Amino acid sequence: MLIGEVARRSGVSTRMLRHYDALGLVRPTGRTTGGYREYSDADIERLLHVESLRSLGLSLRDVGRALDDPSFAPDALMEKLIQDTRDRMAADARLLNRLQQIRVTGADDWPAVLDVVGLLRAVHSEHPAHRQRAALRAGEAGLSAEALTDALLAESDENVAGALRWALAQTPGALDQLAARLTDGDATVRRRVTTALTAIDDARATAVLEASLTDPDPGVRRTVALTLGRRGVDTAVDVLVELVAAGDRDVEAAEILATQDDNGGIVARLVDRLGTDPDPSVRLRLVQALAEITGDAASRTLTELADDADETVARTARAIGPFRSR
């Protein structure tokens, strides 16, 4: 079969067939009576093998080695091709995401598009100052909540993160974007999301935060409970009591508990947690939290604790009692 017919049947151009011949990759081994090179059946089969390997992303050099070098093992090469493909897919996904983010801004001329592109690049700059300036200009350029959320979840500098949280709180759709990330398997991501949600003070954000009171990460639970406690949400009380017991922002948690409307209920929960806990430091923190609470229920409890078996707890209760009666 002559080169023109091979090209028609295989779909490989005559130019590429000649290139393969020059490289020694696929050389026609036959000759016509007129002296023209002719492809044999074996040559055609090799050509098909070359095209099959090229379709996997192999370079022509690697194709030649795969066909001619008996020691050329496919495993390592396949692993490299898989990783290269994943990298290309990730790059394409990033490009698609960026294009969608530009479209969302509604930029309708090239200067506006270039301004948005510049800001999208800036929020991922290696320089924190550039990222912060871009965050502060996000509203002006109309960057989407998705773009700002992506930038926030990748941000390690607290100053820049603060600017991004501020920008998100003013951006339509921020709550939905943040809520969608609350189930992320990475606790660090969930901490950043909940911190951003605390900057959105409305009923929907409060409801979204309540769902994270049972998050397995203590950092998430702490942020959520302190925020909801300040908003007077009763469902946060049990977590706040645990913060006091654990010594995790216990003073702040105790002060928040003291501001709740249901003083008697708060006292009951603190007393229930106190129970027979054998750890003196836990008992002491709970007693000190009771001292922050006004009302008869707290006073009666402190009077009872003045006879506690733990002398440190008893002394603290006795010291607080007279002060409260003044």
Automatic annotation (TrEMBL):
<dbReference type="Pfam" id="PF13411">
    <property type="entry name" value="MerR_1"/>
</dbReference>
<dbReference type="InterPro" id="IPR016024">
    <property type="entry name" value="ARM-type_fold"/>
</dbReference>
<dbReference type="InterPro" id="IPR009061">
    <property type="entry name" value="DNA-bd_dom_put_sf"/>
</dbReference>
<dbReference type="InterPro" id="IPR004155">
    <property type="entry name" value="PBS_lyase_HEAT"/>
</dbReference>
<dbReference type="GO" id="GO:0003700">
    <property type="term" value="F:DNA-binding transcription factor activity"/>
</dbReference>
<dbReference type="Pfam" id="PF13646">
    <property type="entry name" value="HEAT_2"/>
</dbReference>
<dbReference type="InterPro" id="IPR000551">
    <property type="entry name" value="MerR-type_HTH_dom"/>
</dbReference>
<dbReference type="InterPro" id="IPR011989">
    <property type="entry name" value="ARM-like"/>
</dbReference>
<protein>
    <submittedName>
        <fullName>MerR family transcriptional regulator</fullName>
    </submittedName>
</protein>
<dbReference type="InterPro" id="IPR047057">
    <property type="entry name" value="MerR_fam"/>
</dbReference>
<keyword id="KW-0238">DNA-binding</keyword>
<feature type="domain" description="HTH merR-type">
    <location>
        <begin position="1"/>
        <end position="69"/>
    </location>
</feature>
<dbReference type="GO" id="GO:0003677">
    <property type="term" value="F:DNA binding"/>
</dbReference>
